[in-house]
Design goal:
The chain has 296 residues and is α+β, with helices and mostly antiparallel strands. The chain has three domains: 4-50, no CATH class; 58-175, Uridine Diphospho-n-acetylenolpyruvylglucosamine Reductase, domain 3 (2-Layer Sandwich), CATH 3.30.465; 182-290, Enolase-like, domain 1. The protein is 34% helix and 24% strand. The chain has helices at residues 13-22, 35-40, 77-82, 84-89, 91-97, 103-108, 111-116, 125-130, 148-151, 175-178, 232-238, 245-254, 269-290; strands at residues 4-9, 27-29, 47-51, 61-63, 69-72, 134-139, 142-147, 152-154, 157-158, 167-173, 182-188, 199-207, 214-222, 229-230. The strands form four sheets. It has a five-stranded antiparallel beta sheet. Strands 11-12-13-14 form a four-stranded antiparallel beta sheet. A hairpin with a 2-residue loop joins strand 8 (152-154) and strand 9. The protein starts with a strand and ends in a 6-residue tail after the last helix. The model has no long low-confidence stretch (mean pLDDT 94).
């Protein structure tokens, strides 16, 4: 059933790097919820696999010495949703990954696998972009830190240097990005479960001390372009804006300047543009309310 040449079990990050260098064409496998499907379909026929699933050092959520939220790449979606640090500092990320697949997939699927696939529809990706996440890559030359917007190179392609033995070991959410912010993620699909997003929108805001204006806003999308993306024009429009429906509508309209969705058999470009504006309006409204603001 599974036509593979060999599978190697890495015992540590260092061991995984060694195996990557010895087998540069091998596919990394974590939870396997995507890779095993590809193997079954024959897309990985005759390939070597390097399993990193047994590396417990790559699991869990913690705060580093700078108080950045550090999420090990092998941390499962269900673990992220339930984690107290995520609930306290970045609740919306837990809500976003809780919309992946089914309970079984969320129990085995990992945030590292979700991002390393490089697909624009990944439910974690837009929220990670909105929170300006940093990708931690470990290889023969040590640790390399890369802003997530630079990690995605194109559809299904990310910046992991196999020739240097690199693998993604963690994702970091900077303290400055999560502190005093509140967010909302909305996924549009035809079903409530086991559905790939037609469009995903993640918004987070930081309000002024008097809760009357938006001090900072971050807006990011999945399936609004070939890779997950931010909406800088809309973010700038939101900065300093008073909390009223007119300004929220103006921000929602501004996202159309930033995105570049395509026509596909799943949805037209026009529908995705309509969804982007509408989901921005809804997510921004909810984020403001979660932050303690009242919309006039």
């Amino acid at each position: 059933m599974y036509d593979m040449k060999a599978i190697y079990e890495a015992e540590s990050v260092e061991d995984a790097v060694r195996l990557r260098l010895e087998h540069p064409g091998a596919q990394i496998i974590a939870g396997g919820s995507d890779v095993l499907v590809q193997v079954r379909e024959g897309r990985r026929a005759g390939k070597e696999l390097i399993s990193i699933y047994g590396i417990d050092a790559m699991r869990g959520v913690s705060l580093d010495k700078e108080k950045n939220l550090r999420i090990g790449s092998l941390t499962s979606f269900s673990h992220i949703t339930a984690d107290k640090l995520v609930q306290k500092h970045c609740r919306v990320l837990g809500e976003a990954v809780d919309q992946v697949g089914s309970p079984q997939i969320r129990a085995i699927g990992t945030i590292g696998g979700n991002t390393c696939n490089g697909v624009t529809s990944a439910d974690s990706a837009s929220t990670l972009h909105a929170y300006e996440a940093v990708v931690e890559l470990t290889g023969k030359n040590g640790v390399r830190l890369l802003p997530i917007k630079e990690f995605y190179l194109g559809p299904g392609k990310v910046d992991i240097r196999a020739e240097e033995g690199e693998l993604q070991t963690a994702l970091l959410i900077p303290k400055d990005s999560y502190e005093k912010t509140h967010g909302c993620y909305i996924k549009y699909g035809l079903r409530n479960a086991m559905e790939i997003a037609t469009l995903g929108c993640s918004v987070n805001v930081r309000l002024t001390a008097d809760k009357k204006k938006i001090e900072r806003c971050r807006i990011a999308f999945g399936v609004a372009g070939p890779v997950p993306m931010r909406a800088p024009s809309a973010e700038e429009k939101a900065k300093g804006a008073a909390l009223n429906e007119k300004n929220i509508a103006a921000v929602a309209k501004a996202v159309l300047t930033d995105i570049n969705p395509r026509d596909s058999w799943r949805a037209s470009k026009a529908l995705r543009e309509h969804l982007a504006a509408e989901l921005t309006k809804r997510a921004l409204t909810e984020a403001i309310q979660r932050a303690g603001g009242t919309i006039a």
